[in-house]
Amino acid sequence: MLQRVLQDNPIVVTGMGAMSAAGFSTDTLWASAVNGDCPATWQDFVWGKQRWRKAVCAAPDYNSSLARFPRAKKLDRTVQLAILAASQALEQACVNPTIPGCERIGMVVGSSRGARSKWVQAQENRPVFPSDAANSTIASISGTLSQYFSIVGQSYMVSATCASGAVAIALAAQQILIGAADIMLVGGTDAPLNSMMIAQLEATGVLGYHDDPERTCRPFDRTRNGLSLGEGAGFLILESSSSAQRRGVKPLAQLAGWGIAQPKTSDAPP
User: Fold this and answer.
1) How many CA atoms within 13 Å lie on the side-chain side of 59?
2) How far apart are CA 230 and CA 21, in angstroms?
3) Dihedral of the alpha carbons of 78, 79, 80, 86, in degrees to the nearest 10
4) 122 has a pLDDT exceeding 70
5) Which among 61, 78, 156, 265 could bridge 191 via Cys, Cβ 3.0 to 4.6 Å?
6) pLDDT given at position 264
7) Taking a C-beta distance cutoff of 8 angstroms, is the pair 151, 105 a contact?
8) 177, burial (CB in 10 Å: exposed 0-12, middle 13-18, buried 19+)
9) CA distance 237 to 83
10) Nearest to 152 by CA among 196, 107, 188
11) In the predicted model, is pLDDT for residue 269 greater than 60?
């Protein structure tokens, strides 16, 4: 049914942006994946009396890229990564949210953990500022992006753990299909490389280990024993095919469909 609807009302991708440990663009991310490069490096974490050295995938220093967004320097790292990735997608798609008809441009952002570094800072005995109340909420990500890019259409967050970004894409596409928007900025962002998150995930036993940080995450290896935590952001511009044609923008891809489901279990929740 969904495939038929999408055939009659195509939704296309006209812009992409990425910030990751591989670099500052979708091209560098794709090249890293194709070449089998692993950007994992050692990083030390301390939580209370516990200390860990973990292989993590951290984004390179992006302060110079952030210079054109001066107010962003005080924001959570999750929001900073999102701003840089979203700006790439908007520029590639030639989307200007301030043009007439801008109310038809919306946004959905996905994040598993949200603006966690602000919560961590509050635990480090530094002064608590009034801005922390707003900047530490998960909705601060979509709210800040709306302000930075002057998006006045619908804007909201979704958190579905590791599938947050994918669910955001599906929800954004639905808004286009029902006619609530012509263009949607959509993506996911997370920056969980802090001691509190490492402590939590270490307690669950999901973090992998190896003498070589680049081999810690090896999902198709029989000796795999866990994952490497990373940070980054990825954004797309979704729009109806008719919108792209009106704007004279060449589509980069077409959305074929999606599926969202909850695993069936007979066990009652704890």
Assistant:
1) 26
2) 8
3) 110
4) no
5) 78
6) 75
7) yes
8) middle
9) 14
10) 107
11) no
Mapping DSSP to helix (H, G, I), strand (E, B) and coil, where does residue 161 land? coil
High-pLDDT (> 90) share of the chain, % = 72
The 3-state DSSP class for residue 155 equals strand
Task: Give the H/E segment covering residue 34.
Answer: helix 26-35
pLDDT in tens, 56-104: 999 999 999 998 898 888 889 999 999 999 999 999 999 998 887 788 9
Query: How do residues 202-257 score in pLDDT, each as one tens digit?
Result: 999 999 999 999 999 998 999 999 999 999 999 999 999 999 999 999 999 999 99
How many degrees, rounded to 5, is the angle at CA 70 between CA 98 and CA 172? 45
Distance CA 117, CA 58 (A): 14
Q: Which residues have a Cβ under 8 Å from the Cβ of 242 and sit 6 or more positions away?
A: none
The residue to which tokens 């006045």 are assigned: 152
CB 82 within 8 A of CB 147: no
Which of 62, 61, 55, 16 is CA-nearest to residue 39? 55
What would the two tokens of residue 164 be?
A: 């947050």
What Cα–Cα distance (Å) separates residue 170 from each residue in 3, 88, 139, 256? Answer: 13, 21, 18, 11
Residue 31 tokens read as: 């090249």
Tokens of 16: 């992409």
